[in-house]
Design a protein that fits this description.
- By secondary structure, this protein is mainly beta.
- The chain contains one helix and twelve strands.
- It has one helix spanning 140-155, and strands spanning 2-7, 16-19, 25-32, 38-43, 48-54, 64-69, 72-79, 86-91, 94-100, 106-111, 114-122, 129-134.
- Strand 3 and strand 4 form a beta hairpin.
- The chain starts with a strand and ends in a 7-residue tail after the last helix.
- The relative contact order is 0.18.
């Protein structure tokens, strides 16, 4: 399954859609004006899929992000200290890892040694675009949450809540 994430050029709250290959909206991402910063992902019927929350006052280099499903903590992602983006993600929803390239544009999400998704950033002048290639669709909420986290940590240069 391939999904495309194209952020709006001007979005104060961080609202954008995740689309399928044909350009149809399939998920909505909404940021919230809050401390700590929160993002919620909804399906097109308005049901919340997952909520992502940054740990208060933790710097970008040691990001510590929590994931909630139905208001229950399911995962905690901790960034490893490394030149390349590396994360360990653990919790009741499983154990995962993320490895990125040195430019923070391409990432692999693994469960054990198995790649369950790949994320590729396409740079444009006006907005960021990402391609999500999902190998294991049963992990879709987790993969969507992790992709939003990666965008937030690595590409939100103007975010006041850091």
């Amino acid at each position: 399954m391939r999904l495309v994430v194209k952020e709006k050029f001007l979005s104060i709250s961080g609202k954008y859609y995740i689309k399928d290959r044909e350009g149809n909206d399939v998920f909505l991402v909404k940021g919230a004006f809050s401390i700590p910063k929160k993002y919620r992902i909804y399906d097109m019927a308005g049901r919340e899929i997952v909520m992502i929350k940054n740990t208060l006052f933790v710097p970008k280099l040691i990001a510590h992000i929590k994931f909630y499903e139905n208001n229950k903590l399911i995962l905690i992602a901790k960034r490893k200290f490394s030149i390349k983006a590396k994360y360990d993600i653990n919790g009741s929803a499983g154990n995962y890892s993320i490895n990125g390239n040195i430019f923070d544009h391409d990432f692999e999400i693994k469960q054990g040694e198995t790649v369950i998704a790949s994320i590729f950033k396409k740079m444009t002048i006006y907005r960021d675009s990402y391609m999500l290639d999902i190998e294991d669709e049963s992990k879709l909420p987790i993969i969507l949450g992790l992709s939003v986290m990666l965008d937030y940590v690595h590409h939100r240069h103007n975010d006041d809540n850091y």
